[in-house]
Amino acid sequence: MKKSILITGGAGFIGCHVVRLFVEKYPDYNIINLDLLTYAGNLENLKEVENAPNYRFERVDILKEEDLKFVFEKHNVTDVIHLAAESHVDRSITDPLAFVRTNVIGTVNLLNVAKAYWKNYDDHLFYHVSTDEVYGSLEDGGFFTETTPYDPQSPYSASKASSDHFVRAYANTYKLKTVITNCSNNYGANQFPEKLIPLCIHNIKNNRPLPVYGKGENIRDWLYVVDHARAIDMVFHEGKPGETYNVGGFNEWKNIDIVKLLCQKMDEKLGREAGSSEKLITYVTDRAGHDHRYAIDATKIQRELGWEPSLQFEEGITKTIDWYLENEEWLNNVTSGDYQKYYELHYDNR
Ligand SMILES: Cc1cn([C@H]2C[C@H](O)[C@@H](COP(=O)(O)OP(=O)(O)O[C@H]3O[C@H](CO)[C@@H](O)[C@H](O)[C@H]3O)O2)c(=O)[nH]c1=O
């Protein structure tokens, strides 16, 4: 059976890297990108593949079950890689219901449509792309493994934990073939500049304050987005049905050290005096309920599937900075309109 893979959220940050990889690497698959094009989705991210014969785009809201059914029938969808989600923790604190709608109800809608449309479940895979935040927050020791109990702390992570649970419940109850990956913080090209790294790059460039929450002591594990897309490719093709795989970079950084690294690299790139961008660092009120540390044990995917990050962090960060500096138009487009309102609400008034 020819594969017709529905990739949801394909116009978003991680999604666009997955769509590009699959369209280019698998000319024999049909790749259907389903995206609502909310503030974080952008078809400019897919210019390289938009005319490829094996690529189709559908602008659809995963909350509209009838529209999902239509897409399944129109494209004879054989598999789903589900990335569409509200993803920003700060937004989830302001509007938790939006996260329940898209992340929980949207996922259940997709599961229902897949369950009804597919005949022999063994022939189809429902792949849910999730986050390490479902495991909660760590102190200074230890790692999240695939058996760490879920302990979500923010409305965002609670919504992703819930959607993971629904995916597992559909595997258990209806025998749908499913797989889940829980990944750490991604960085790279095409990320909407509300997240720490592109926000800092954008603000350093424009001499705007760099808002560091609390003391900047919180720790995240960072992975280059292309390496996440490679992991998704491997798990899609070789992962064991019913399993979970953690994906991470074994690359922990305190926020303040990331911000300083970006300042240093940007000073070099922009020909500014060393230390000048660091003056933009502004300590602001902490995020409510801010998780202290995420650290992911990615040995299972390394051992079982042979996946490994391909890029060292400093190299990835340099590539990332270069991309944002070279794609000024992209950055200007995504930061026009509502971005300004959002920025004022979240940062200027803190
Ligand atoms: C935007 C922003 C963030 N921060 C802090 C909060 C976090 O400790 C850290 C990274 O923040 P964010 O870039 O928002 O990412 P974080 O909250 O860790 O969550 C990301 O990583 C998760 C995976 O761990 C994903 O599931 C989420 O979708 C993604 O948004 O930097 C600041 O200090 N200042 C800022 O302006």
TrEMBL record:
One of its GO terms (molecular function) is dTDP-glucose 4,6-dehydratase activity. CDD domains: dTDP_GD_SDR_e (cd05246). Keywords: Lyase, NAD. The keyword Transcription does not apply. Its EC number is 4.2.1.46. It comes from the Bacteria. GO terms for biological process: nucleotide-sugar metabolic process. Residues 6-320 form the NAD(P)-binding domain. It catalyses: dTDP-alpha-D-glucose = dTDP-4-dehydro-6-deoxy-alpha-D-glucose + H2O. InterPro entries: dTDP_Gluc_deHydtase (IPR005888), NAD(P)-bd_dom (IPR016040), NAD(P)-bd_dom_sf (IPR036291). Its cofactor is NAD(+). Pfam families: GDP_Man_Dehyd. Belongs to the NAD(P)-dependent epimerase/dehydratase family. dTDP-glucose dehydratase subfamily. NCBIfam families: dTDP_gluc_dehyt. This is dTDP-glucose 4,6-dehydratase.
